[in-house]
Automatic annotation (TrEMBL):
Keywords: Transferase. CDD domains: LbH_wcaF_like (cd05825). PANTHER family: ACETYLTRANSFERASE C18B11.09C-RELATED, SIALIC ACID SYNTHASE-RELATED. This is Colanic acid biosynthesis acetyltransferase WcaF. Belongs to the transferase hexapeptide repeat family. Coiled coil: none annotated.
Amino acid sequence: MQQTDLSVYNNHPYHPGGNALKRLLWYYVNAVIFKNRLFPINGLKTGLLKLFGAKIGKGVVIKPAVNIKSPWLLSIGNHTWIGEQVWIDNLVMVTIGSNVCLSQGAILQTGSHNYKKTTFDLITGSITLEDGAWIGCAAIVNQGISVGSHAVLTTGSVATKNLEPYFIYQGNPAVKVRAREIS
């Protein structure tokens, strides 16, 4: 029976974007300002994200202790909220629409590994959160997933398939439980 052999892992086809200096600078900016619970200044955060190549709309709120891997692979629309301890692990592009809410501890995970290969190859897929989507506390959106307009992924749920607009999803893996009605 074959076994995983991480000594032969080769990440060669993947490139994180940006040059080495940009990635190094972002590592420290992310650690000191974004991931820091004691740094609540929102305007500086959105300005730094733009400086590092993110596309950021107006009225975006970024709470303390947020971890963003690659701002040059991030686009956020207008009036979106990013809650405390959100992790945007964007190895590839993450597109977040307007009026989206990422609640505390939510994870957007654009990468994984192919467990069927002995080399444990990297798998990536972009994530899109359409306008009005709500990702609940500690919920996870996996690589390659699109969350439709105004869809809800409830607290602690895991999106492993695309979520249709205006529906509420719950569980691991998340399943459609009912329509979202907004009054």
